[in-house]
Automatic annotation (TrEMBL):
Domain of life of the source: Bacteria
Protein name as it appears in the record: Polymorphic outer membrane protein
InterPro entries the record matches: PbH1, Pectin_lyase_fold/virulence
Polar residues: bias regions: 1-11
Transmembrane segments: 31-50
Keywords for this protein: Membrane, Transmembrane, Transmembrane helix
Length: 468
C-alpha cells in the first residue's frame, strides 16, 4: 500500500467523538421508575411493573450499613492471582446484589445517587439485560462504583434485545470490575464500545475479568476516551465495524498488564484487529499476549495512528492483516522492549512490524527483542516507510517475503542497528536480510556486533558495509 493510499485510509479514522447523551435513545419507563424510587427511598412494588425485583428499600438498607466502604479503591487486582478467579477473594463485605438484572439496575441507580458503592454480585449467575438505558443495559456510572463478581458471574445482553452496550462510564465516574464476564453487548451502527464505553474524564479498571463476544463501531470490546486499566484479564472474540476489534484507545490512556488480547477482529478497512490507539492516545502494554487477531487493513495485533505505544515483556503472535503490519502497524511513536513478534502475516508489507510516517515524525525503538517467522510481500520482519527505526540487541530471523525478508527500508527511511542479528531470512526475489531502496539510509554499526549473515538469496541490497 502506498503512502498516499494509506494517508487517505488513515484520514478516515480521525474524527471527533460525540459522547452518548442522556435521552438520546428510548428507555423503558420501568428503568425511570427504578431510578426515581432509589432517589426518594421508595420501595419498588408490583404497581410500578417491576414484578420480582427487590425493593429499593432493601437495597437502601444494605447500602446504609456499607456507607463507610462506599467508593473506596478495590484491592482485588493485587489480592488475586489470575483472571480466572483463583487466589484470595476480596474479604471486604460490599452490598450483596441477588441474581436479578432489575436488582443490579436498582443497586447501581442508588449507588450513583449516594456517591458510590461496592456491590457484590452473585456467583454462578448471569444478569440478563433486556432493555436499553440511554444506549447501555445498565445505568451510566457517574460515581466510584465497584462490581465484584465471582465464579461464573456474567453480565450479558439478551440475544433478542435491541442493540445496546453493557456499560457506559461518564465523566467523573470510576468503575472497577473484578471477576466478571461482560458479553453480548452490541451497539448501534456508529456507536463505539460494544461492551464498555469509557468517556472522557472517566476511569475504568478491569481486573481478573473477561470481555468477550461484543460488537461495536470502534472498540468491539472496549472504547476508551478516559483512563482505562486492564489487569489479569482476557479480551477475546470481540468485533469492530470500524477499528480495533478488542480495545480502542481514542485520545485516552490505556494500560494493559498481564492480560490476553486474542481472537478479536476488525474485518473492514480497519486499523487494529486486537487493539488500537488514535488521536494522540497513549497505550502501555506489559507482560501480555496479543494473539490470533485480524484486521481488514493494517495492524492485525496492534494498529495505531497518531499515537504512542510502549510494549514490554510481551508476545505478539499469529495475527493477520489483509494489507500491512501483521503484528503491529504504527503511525506515531513505538517502543518495544523484550518483545517477541512471531508468526504474523500481512499480504502486502510488514509481516511483523510496519512503521509508516504519514503525519511526520514517526519513529520506533526496538530493544532486546525477537522478530521471527513472519511473512509478507515486502519486509517480512519489518517494513519502514519513511520513518526512523533504531534496533538494539535484537534478532531478526526466519522471516519470509518477496523482497526484503528481514527488513525492507523504503526511500526516505532511516534504519540504525546496534548489536543486532539479521540471520536466516529468505526472500523470493531480492534482499534476504535487508533491502534498502535508493534514497533510504541504513547504518549497521558492525563494531557493536551487528551481523547480517546466512540470508537468502543474498544478505543486503544497497547497504554499505554489508556483504551481498
Amino acid at each position: 500500500m502506498t503512502g498516499k493510499d494509506t494517508n487517505t485510509a488513515m484520514n478516515d479514522q480521525r474524527y471527533d467523538h460525540e459522547p452518548d447523551r442522556p435521552g438520546a435513545r428510548r428507555a423503558r419507563s420501568r428503568w425511570w421508575a427504578v431510578g426515581l424510587a432509589g432517589m426518594t427511598g421508595l420501595a419498588l412494588t408490583t404497581s410500578l411493573g417491576i414484578g420480582g425485583a427487590p425493593a429499593i428499600g432493601a437495597v437502601d438498607g444494605i447500602l446504609t450499613a456499607a456507607d463507610d466502604r462506599r467508593g473506596k479503591p478495590d484491592r482485588a487486582s493485587t489480592d488475586n492471582k489470575d483472571h480466572k478467579g483463583k487466589g484470595t477473594k476480596d474479604k471486604r463485605k460490599g452490598t450483596p446484589v441477588p441474581c436479578d438484572a432489575d436488582a443490579l439496575i436498582a443497586a447501581i441507580t442508588l449507588a450513583n445517587a449516594r456517591g458510590g458503592a461496592v456491590l457484590d454480585l452473585a456467583t454462578d449467575c448471569t444478569y440478563l439485560l433486556t432493555a436499553t438505558i440511554d444506549g447501555a443495559g445498565l445505568p451510566a456510572i457517574t460515581t466510584p462504583i465497584t462490581l465484584n463478581g465471582g465464579k461464573h458471574t456474567t453480565i450479558t445482553r439478551a440475544a433478542a434485545a435491541e442493540p445496546f452496550r453493557i456499560l457506559t462510564v461518564e465523566a467523573g465516574g470510576h468503575l472497577t470490575l473484578n471477576h466478571l464476564t461482560i458479553t453480548g453487548g452490541q451497539t448501534e451502527t456508529f456507536d463505539d464500545g460494544g461492551g464498555i464505553l469509557a468517556n472522557s474524564g472517566s476511569t475504568l479498571a478491569i481486573n481478573h475479568s473477561v470481555i468477550r463476544n461484543n460488537i461495536g463501531n470502534n472498540g468491539g470490546g472496549v472504547a476508551n476516551f478516559g483512563t482505562t486499566t486492564v489487569k489479569h484479564s482476557t479480551v477475546s472474540e470481540n468485533t469492530a465495524r470500524a477499528n480495533a476489534g478488542g480495545l480502542q484507545n481514542m485520545a485516552g490512556l490505556l494500560t494493559i498488564e498481564r492480560s490476553k488480547i486474542t481472537d478479536n477482529t476488525a474485518p473492514g478497512l480497519a486499523i487494529g484487529g486486537g487493539l488500537g490507539s488514535i488521536n494522540g492516545a497513549t497505550t502501555r502494554i506489559n507482560r501480555s499476549s496479543i494473539t490470533h487477531n485480524h484486521s481488514g487493513l493494517s495492524g492485525g495485533g496492534i494498529g495505531d495512528f497518531d499515537a504512542t505505544t510502549v510494549v514490554t515483556d510481551s508476545t505478539i503472535s499469529q495475527n493477520t492483516a489483509d494489507v500491512s503490519g501483521g503484528g503491529i502497524f504504527e503511525e506515531g511513536q513505538l517502543t518495544l522492549r523484550h518483545v517477541t513478534i512471531t508468526d504474523n502475516n500481512a499480504l502486502d508489507g510488514g509481516g511483523g512490524v510496519e512503521i509508516q510516517n504519514v503525519l511526520g515524525g514517526s519513529a520506533a525503538t526496538i530493544e532486546d527483542s525477537e522478530i521471527t517467522n513472519n511473512t509478507t510481500g515486502r519486509g517480512g520482519g519489518i517494513r519502514n516507510l519513511a520513518a526512523t527505526i533504531v534496533l538494539r540487541n535484537t534478532r531478526i530471523a526466519g522471516n519470509q517475503a518477496d523482497t526484503g525478508a528481514g527488513v525492507f527500508n523504503n526511500i526516505g527511511s532511516t534504519l540504525t542497528l546496534f548489536s543486532t542479528k539479521v540471520v536466516k531470512n529468505t526472500a523470493v526475489t531480492d534482499g534476504g536480510g535487508i533491502f534498502n531502496e535508493v534514497g533510504g539510509t541504513v547504518e549497521l554499526n558492525t563494531a557493536t556486533g551487528t551481523v547480517v549473515v546466512k540470508n537468502r538469496p543474498n544478505n543486503c541490497v544497497n547497504v554499505t558495509g554489508c556483504p551481498g
